[in-house]
Amino acid sequence: MKAEELKGKSPDQLKDELLSLRKEAFNLRFQRASGQLENTSRIRAVRRDIARIKTVMRVQAGQ
């Protein structure tokens, strides 16, 4: 996910995306703990996407 894609979204869309990524992060952590996680790089990607969304939300709130 690119920051440019996120800048064009409304705050409600960003909140929905953030919620779904947090759920995915939870599920990935659960899979890692139980030894069922195959794609370990996905955890890092999801964490970074969450950070990108939070950054865009913070910038939009300041404007």
What does this entry look like structurally?
The chain is mainly α and 63 residues long. It has a single domain, classed as Helix Hairpins (Orthogonal Bundle). It is 81% helix and 0% strand. The protein has helices at 3-7, 11-34, 41-62. Helix 2 runs antiparallel to helix 3. The mean pLDDT is 94.
Topology:
Elements: H1 3-7, H2 11-34, H3 41-62
Shape: elongated
Number of spatially distinct domains: 1
Main β-sheet description: none
One letter per element, helices H and strands E, the order comes to HHH
Distance N to C terminus: 23 Å
Mean pLDDT equals 94
Helix content: over 70%
At CATH level 2, the architecture is Orthogonal Bundle
Number of helices: 3
Q: Which ranges are low-confidence, i.e. pLDDT below 50, for 5 or more consecutive residues?
A: none
Query: What is the number of beta strands?
Result: 0
Rounded to an integer, what's the Rg over CA atoms?
13 Å
Strand content: under 5%
Class by alpha and beta content: mainly alpha
Find the CATH topology: Helix Hairpins
> Could you name the CATH class?
Mainly Alpha
